[in-house]
Design a protein that fits this description.
single chain; disordered N terminus; mainly alpha; 18 helices
């Protein structure tokens, strides 16, 4: 798949519908205006009727980070219907390979049968099967994707989800509790009704993928010497890096902090290939660090103290119980030949490590299907380890090792987005 950063096409319809979804969410979760899920479905349906193939794909990237606050199961059905219609009506654009289709169906059937055998029969447990088919259709779109448009829409969506979740959490606690670290931002459950509630680690996962993509776009702009020609691109990328970084900070996710530090190391390593670029990068980071430290010290001093204390807590050595969970579920997986081959149940496996969720939950047979499907998806997206641009996906994979994202496309989507971003970066020398 070829990728482009921008194309001079009108996106007014797409912006209109994305704005509509965002305003409805903000009205409901920020202003406490009762908004029925029917309104969200009507807007999504109208959008899918009006948008073309490329706009529909970009619309998916906008919707996925918002799934926690939307009627996602119904939206998935609508998206599958639209993408299937596009695939049948435009076979030159949508290239559904037989191997990818067969593997997707087999994997969905595998999860479906496993859920039935274990008594998991709720809509939540079967929704993932449909989401696999949605991802297959999305990946089958072989046309170039405007990477900057995709990145900005995804980042705007993550930002909206963070704002909504902040107000929902503040409604149950207070802004002062959140901004001092007295409560973990996002830890609001059982609130009743459909609202944007996010685990801080999952929000950090989404934020990190967006930050990594914008950091690469920014670095390439400066490396190409086109930052003055594209001041809008510089400003937008800086805005999203700062805003998404803020939500990652108040989430107090240690994994986010560690992965953000690794991302910084990756970017410095990339800049080191050009001495001039390294000097400019170090100067920029130094000024940014001074400004950020001063701002945080003035406005959020208690939050900084709480963040530092998170790395001094007694559970740090065991990764907040993650190591114990891995040992327990690893033992359960190896307890019998049946469990070893077919897993202990994907939705049953409570281990905060996405890859190990698949290993323990699906067994050897299921992992073969996962690996085959993942390979086909990677090939369809156009990603290759032999090419450059691997920083976003490397960072996302690292954070996926500390979050249980295996059971939902919306939870996995930061990884999907990072794959697209890395593939696009590998195909373009700069930000065009």
């Amino acid at each position: 798949m070829a990728h482009v950063f921008d194309r001079p096409v009108c996106r007014d319809k797409l912006v209109f519908f994305c704005t509509g979804i965002g305003l409805l969410l903000l009205c409901r979760d920020v202003l406490s205006v009762p908004v029925s899920r029917i309104f969200f479905l009507l807007v999504v349906f109208a959008a899918l009727v009006c948008l073309d193939a490329e706009e529909t794909r970009l619309f998916v990237f906008f919707l996925m980070p918002l799934y926690a606050g939307l009627p996602g199961n119904y939206i998935t059905v609508l998206l599958i219907g639209k993408l299937l219609f596009l695939a049948l009506s435009n076979p030159d654009r949508f290239r559904i390979s037989v191997s990818c289709a067969v593997c997707s169906v087999f994997f969905a059937a595998y999860v479906f049968i496993q859920n039935l055998s274990l008594g998991y029969v709720s809509t939540y447990h079967f929704a993932f099967c449909a989401e696999i088919l949605l991802l297959m259709l999305l990946v089958s779109d072989g046309s170039p994707i405007p990477l900057r448009h995709m990145t900005e829409l995804y980042s705007a969506s993550v930002l909206i989800s963070g704002i909504c979740a902040l107000f929902v959490c503040a409604g149950e606690n207070s802004f002062s509790d959140i901004l001092t670290g007295a409560v973990r931002f996002g830890d609001v459950y059982g609130t009743g009704g459909m609202r944007m509630t996010l685990d801080p680690n999952f929000l950090g996962f989404s934020c990190l993928s967006g930050i990594a993509a914008h950091a690469e776009l920014l670095r390439r702009l400066f490396a190409s010497g086109k930052e003055k020609e594209n001041r809008r691109g510089v400003f937008v990328s800086l805005f999203f890096i700062v805003s998404l970084g803020f939500f990652g900070l108040i989430g107090l996710s240690r994994t986010f902090f560690v992965c953000a530090a690794v991302l910084l190391l990756f970017e410095l390593t990339a800049c080191a290939r050009t001495p001039r670029m390294l000097v400019r990068c170090l100067l920029f980071l130094s000024l940014s660090a001074v400004f950020a430290f001063a701002a945080v010290s003035v406005f959020l001093p208690e939050l900084v103290k709480t963040a530092v204390s998170r790395f001094q807590s007694a559970d740090l050595a065991g990764a907040n119980g993650r190591v114990t969970l891995i040992k327990e579920w690893g033992s359960a997986w190896m307890s019998s030949a049946g469990a070893l081959m077919f897993g202990v149940g994907l939705f049953h496996t409570n281990v905060h490590f996405t890859a190990l969720q698949y290993v323990f939950g699906l067994g050897i047979v299921g992992c073969i299907l996962v690996f085959a499907l993942f390979s086909l998806f990677v090939r369809g997206i156009g990603f290759s380890l032999r090419k450059s641009g691997k920083i976003p996906i490397s960072t996302a994979v690292l954070m996926s090792c500390a979050v249980p994202a295996a059971c939902s496309l919306s939870a996995l989507f930061p990884l999907v987005f990072a794959l697209y971003a890395s593939a696009g970066l590998a195909c373009s020398p700069d930000d065009g």
